[in-house]
Amino acid sequence: MHVRPSRPTRRASRLLLVLALVAALVPVAMPGTAVAASSTYYVDAITGSNTAAGISAAPFKTITHAMAGAAAGDTIVWCATERTTPRSGSRSRSP
């Protein structure tokens, strides 16, 4: 004779089945894999050097050099150490 499981037992079985399926579909990080950290590069056209490290204490000289070493997600900070003024004869726009 076949005995049918009780209603709570059937619910628990269904719940476990659903949880097992969800767990199988969720990607799990593999041991030893890491997300690459983003870098911040600094550029200063006045005091920088393209042979420097690109850090705030030793910035690059050109934005082109910083862009060549940057990857997706990196930040480039332009350090303004000199105030620029318009050349004589140029027109400035008023807001």
List the helices and strands and how they pair.
Elements: H1 7-25, E1 40-43, H2 63-69, E2 75-78
Task: Spell out the key features of this protein.
2 strands, two-stranded parallel sheet, 27% helix, alpha+beta, 2 helices
How would you describe what is shown here?
There is one protein chain. Strands 1-2 form a two-stranded parallel sheet. The N and C termini lie far apart (90 Å). It has 95 residues and is α+β, with helices and mostly antiparallel strands. The chain has a domain at 40-78. Helices cover 27% and strands 8% of the residues. It is built from two helices and two strands; from the N terminus they run αβαβ. β1 (40-43), α2 and β2 form a beta-alpha-beta unit. The mean pLDDT is 75.
Task: Give a brief description.
This protein has 95 residues and is of the alpha+beta class. It contains 2 helices and 2 strands.
Which stretches are low in confidence, meaning pLDDT under 50 for 5 or more residues running?
none
Biggest sheet, spatial arrangement of strands: 1-2
Structural class: alpha+beta
Q: What is the end-to-end distance?
A: 90 Å
Q: Radius of gyration in whole Å, from Cα?
A: 30 Å
| Overall geometric form | rod-shaped
Number of strands: 2
Let me know the largest β-sheet: 2 strands, parallel
The overall pLDDT, averaged over residues, is 75
Strand content: 5-15%
Helical content stands at 25-40%
Oligomer: single chain
The helix count comes to: 2
The ordered H/E elements are: HEHE
